[in-house]
Design brief:
Blueprint (H helix, E strand, L loop, with lengths): L1 H11 L2 H20 L28 H24 L1 H18 L12 E9 L14 H14 L1 H5 L7 E6 L5 E9 L2 E7 L26 E9 L5 E14 L2 E16 L5 H28 L6
Antiparallel strand pairs: 1-7, 2-3, 3-4, 4-5, 5-6, 6-7
Helix pairs in contact: 2-3, 5-7
Bound molecules: 2-acetamido-2-deoxy-beta-D-glucopyranose (5 copies).
One 2-acetamido-2-deoxy-beta-D-glucopyranose (NAG) binds next to loops.
Length: 307
C-alpha cells in the first residue's frame, strides 16, 4: 500500500507535471494581478469599503504583499533556467518581433542625427537628506557604479530583485576587463532576451563603450556607459543603451557634491511601438530607483564599502 502510494506520488509529481502545475499557478497569478476589474483605490470609485475589523498590522496591503511573496516563491523554485524554459514561446515571439522591427527600420548608424529612432528616457536624481558641509559625500556616482559591479559579481540577488519582471540576469566578465550582461525581461509587449556584450568595467570604474554620433552628448555627465542591446539568440543588435551619471553640486557649489543624477537612455530602431518604449522606460525607472535606494543604504550602513 505504502509503496503503491509512493509510486503513485512519484508518477504524479514528475518534473514535467510540476512545471505544468507551476505554469498554471503563474497563469492564475497573472489573472489575479490584473485585478477583479475595478480600481478600488480611486476615491471616485462608486463603492465604499469600510473596514471595521481587519489585520492588526493596520491598512491591508491587499494583494501586493501576497503577490510579491508568491512571485518570490515561484521564481526561487523555478530558477532562471526553469523560468526561461517556461517562457520559451514568449522569448521566440520576442526575437521575431525584434527581427521585424530591425528589418523595417534600416537606421543609419553613422548619421549625426538620431532621425526617427525611438528613445526611452529616464532621468532622476537621488539626494540624501542629511547632506552637510563637513562630511564627505559617500553616495557618489562612482560609488554607485562600484556598488552595481559589486552586486553583479557578489550579490546577484540585488540586481535580480531590482524589478519583479526579471526572468534572467547573468553577469559575466570579459577578458578585456569589461562586464557582459544577459538579461531576460519584458520591454512592453516584447519579452526581450538580450545580451549586452560589453557594459562597463568589472571594477565598477566609470567607462565602457563608445558614444554613437547620434546619441545625446551629456556634457554635464562625466561618467557614461554605452552598450549594444543584442539578441541572445543570433546576435542581432536591436538597441543601444547610453547611461550617464554625475554627482550633484551641494548648495550650488560645484566643488562639493551630495547625491547623484542618472540619465538613462535606450535607443531603439525607428518605428518601435510606443508600448515598447513606455514599457522599458517604466522598467528602467523601477529598477534604477530600487538600485539607487539599495546602494545608498548599503553605503550608509557599510554593507558596501567603496574601494
Ligand atoms: C487607481 O486610482 C488611483 C487614485 O485615483 C490612481 O492613482 C491610480 O493610478 C489608479 N490605478 C489604475 C491602474 O488606474
Ligand atoms: C464609510 O466611510 C466613509 C468615509 O469615512 C463614510 O463617509 C461613510 O459614511 C462610511 N460608510 C459606512 C456604511 O459606514
Ligand atoms: C563616508 O565614509 C567615511 C569613511 O567610511 C566616513 O568616515 C564618513 O562619515 C562617511 N560620510 C557620510 C556622510 O556618511
Ligand atoms: C549570454 O548570451 C550570449 C549570446 O547568446 C552567450 O554566448 C553567453 O554564453 C551568455 N552568457 C551567460 C552568462 O548566460
Ligand atoms: C565652495 O566650497 C569650497 C570648498 O569647501 C570653498 O572653499 C568655497 O568658498 C565655496 N564657494 C562658495 C561660492 O560657497
Amino acid at each position: 500500500m505504502v509503496s503503491f502510494t509512493k509510486v503513485f506520488v512519484a508518477a504524479l509529481f514528475t518534473p514535467a507535471s510540476c512545471r505544468a502545475l507551476l505554469r498554471a499557478q503563474i497563469r492564475g497569478l497573472e489573472i489575479s494581478s490584473v485585478g477583479p476589474g475595478g480600481n478600488f483605490s480611486d476615491p471616485n470609485y462608486p463603492l465604499d469599503i469600510n473596514i471595521s475589523a481587519g489585520p492588526q498590522s493596520g491598512a491591508p496591503s491587499l494583494e501586493l504583499a501576497a503577490a510579491r511573496r508568491a512571485l518570490k516563491k515561484l521564481k526561487d523554485l523555478l530558477g532562471q533556467d526553469g523560468l526561461k524554459q517556461l517562457l520559451a514561446d514568449d522569448i521566440a515571439a520576442g526575437n521575431k518581433a525584434w527581427h521585424d522591427i530591425v528589418d523595417a527600420a534600416q537606421d543609419d548608424d553613422t548619421n549625426l542625427d538620431p532621425g526617427t529612432r525611438t528613445l526611452a528616457e529616464v532621468q532622476f536624481s537621488a539626494v540624501p537628506s542629511d547632506c552637510n558641509e563637513d562630511k564627505p559625500a559617500n553616495f557618489t556616482a562612482v560609488n554607485f557604479l562600484g556598488w552595481f559591479a559589486d552586486s553583479a559579481f557578489h550579490h546577484a540577488d540585488k540586481l535580480w530583485k531590482g524589478h519583479p519582471e526579471h526572468y534572467g540576469i547573468a553577469i559575466s566578465a570579459n577578458s578585456d576587463g569589461t562586464m557582459a550582461a544577459n538579461v531576460t525581461e519584458p520591454w512592453g509587449s516584447i519579452l526581450t532576451d538580450s545580451y549586452v556584450p560589453s557594459l562597463m568595467p568589472v571594477t565598477g570604474q566609470p567607462g565602457g563603450g563608445e558614444r554613437k554620433p547620434w546619441m545625446k552628448k551629456r556634457e554635464d555627465f562625466p561618467y557614461q556607459s554605452v552598450g549594444e542591446e543584442t539578441l541572445q539568440d543570433g546576435g542581432v543588435v536591436f538597441g543601444h543603451l547610453h547611461y550617464a551619471f554625475r554627482d550633484i553640486p551641494f548648495d550650488g557649489n560645484s566643488s562639493k557634491t551630495c547625491g547623484i543624477e542618472m540619465a538613462l537612455n535606450i535607443w531603439m530602431p525607428s518605428h518601435t511601438p510606443d508600448d515598447v518604449r513606455d514599457g522599458i522606460s517604466d522598467h528602467l525607472m523601477v529598477e534604477y530607483y530600487n538600485w539607487a535606494g539599495w546602494a545608498f543604504q548599503d553605503i550608509k550602513l557599510g554593507a558596501y564599502v567603496p574601494a
